[in-house]
Amino acid sequence: MLRNKKTGLFTGTMIGLSMAISSITYAQEGPIRISYIEPLSGPFANVGDAGLKHFRFAAEKMNEQGGILGRDIEIVAMDNKQSPSESVQLVQRSIDEGINFVTQGNGSNVAGAMVEAVDRNNRRNEDNKVLYLNYAAVDPALTNERCSFYHFRFDAASDIKLEALSNYMKSRDDEIDKIFLINQDYSHGQFISKRMKELVDEKGIEAEIVGDVLHPIAQVRDFSPYISRIQQSGADTVVSGNWGNDLSLLVRAIDSAGLDVNIYTYYGGGLGTPAAVGPRGEGILYQITEWHADVNVDEGLTEYEKWFQEFKERYPEIDWYYHRIYNQMHMLKAAIEEVGNAEDIDAIARALEGMEFESQTGTITMRAQDHQILQPMYMSVMDTNAKYDADNSGVGFRTVANIPVEQATVDTTCDMRRP
Fold first, then answer.
1. Dist CA 366 CA 153 (whole Å)
2. Which of 211, 244, 313, 364 could make an SS bond with 47 (beta carbons 3.0 to 4.6 A apart)?
3. Is the same domain home to 110 and 234?
């Protein structure tokens, strides 16, 4: 390290100060970066890739309108290989790179690990906090006993989805006699297994649970042994929270075996499942979602239709599926612009708390108590006459029940610690 004889300052010190100032300037004037932490390799790579396309398309469209505070939005892809431990490392990498926002959604086991990592960092690192935006991990614990000031969920929690789904099933009591539950063996699937049995009793659904199976996540290639159990049980209804290939392979196996059952799902409308079953799923494959392409099609969603049609032109192999990503990105923009500073994470979190946003499906609210989004929901069924097909399958989804916000809400036990 050299000392300048005239100024008395060390050259190395000046360089260090210059680099630090440059880094701060970049953080405040460069792009607003969001780490996308999802599986981009392995059995769920197709799901991770689809989500990445959604986020990058949304960022691009928003950047065309000036971005956030005049700064572009940049989505930084990080492959977690569907591993909780890998995801924790990527949270730390994001923090080290000065990225203030992380997003994830596939796997509540991953989400739980990320919540802990974010909370731990934010307790220890007041000057470099990070906000976790959850667009798809639906374990109710994340907004109940494990709720966090720095975690926001933009998808309906599993208990909310089951509340809406079971209400619809109750309305079809005369068609449902025997229910078979099949789910992935981790927190999300375990919750559905437990709670669905409780709801059958609580709502007086006149049906019997004749099977309840939990299978390893992302490890089953041949579902035929499970299909045999469904067949032997005499079930007329299957309920599953499976996603990705675990749902596509399940539905395809049910179809191949010629089982005469209705299939109630969380994720039957995208990411490979419609293509796996095609028109054979008409009238039997149901989904509970916050949106699908035929929602309000008679009234016309002109601007939003342009949005998802342009997405389809850009990525012909998939559909615009994650409406919640649209909501999440625009609500984050609104919160940052209310604060006027993309680096003040505590203030941004407070701006998101209680925020009401006019989405294409109506008013949605980020509940302040637990950071759970509250929004209308829709039950829909596969229909060859739908305006928009799904997964280039020739069949789309038709709404069979509109579920208003007040019927798509459950209480929370969250006792949140705030800074």
1. 8
2. 244
3. no
d(CA 387, CA 265): 21
Structural domain span for residue 384: 158-289+376-407
Our CA angle for 371, 308, 81, nearest 5°, is 60
For the ranges 22-31, 111-120, 247-256, 312-321, the lowest mean pLDDT is seen at: 22-31
Which residues touch 7 (CB under 8 Å, ≥6 apart)?
A: none
Residue of 419, 330, 384, 263 lying closest to 58 (CA atoms): 330
pTM of the complete model: 0.89
Measured distance CA(100)–CA(367) in Å, rounded = 22
Helix (H) or strand (E) holding 358: strand 356-359
- pLDDT tens digits for range 83-94: 999 999 999 999
Measured in degrees and rounded to the nearest 5, phi and psi for residue 358 equal -85, 95
Beta-strand relationship, 356-359 and 362-366 = antiparallel
Closest CA to 64 of 55, 52, 53, 73: 73
Ramachandran assignment for 8, one of left (phi > 0), alpha (psi -120 to 50 degrees), beta (any other): left
Distance CA 1, CA 268 (A): 63
> What is the Cα–Cα distance from 101 to 103, expressed in whole angstroms?
7
In a domain, 402, yes or no: yes
Q: What is the C-alpha to C-alpha distance for residues 138 and 251, in angstroms, rounded to an integer?
A: 21
DSSP letter (8 states) at residue 321: -
Rounded percentage of the chain residues whose pLDDT exceeds 90: 87
- Cα 114–Cα 141–Cα 80 angle in degrees, nearest 5: 25
180 burial level (CB within 10 Å; 0-12, 13-18, 19+): buried
Nearest CA to 264 among 401, 153, 144, 389?
Answer: 401
Instruction: Give the whole-angstrom CA distance, residue 312 versus residue 388.
Output: 11
CATH number for the domain that contains residue 370: 3.40.50.2300
Q: Closest Cα to residue 167, out of 353, 370, 354, 401?
A: 401
Q: 171 with 268, same domain?
A: yes
Return the DSSP state at 71: B
Closest CA to 164 of 248, 264, 298, 247: 264
User: In which band, very low, low, confident or very high, does the pLDDT at 139 lie, cut at 50, 70 and 90?
Assistant: very high
User: Is residue 75 a contact partner of residue 38, using CB atoms and an 8 Å limit?
Assistant: no
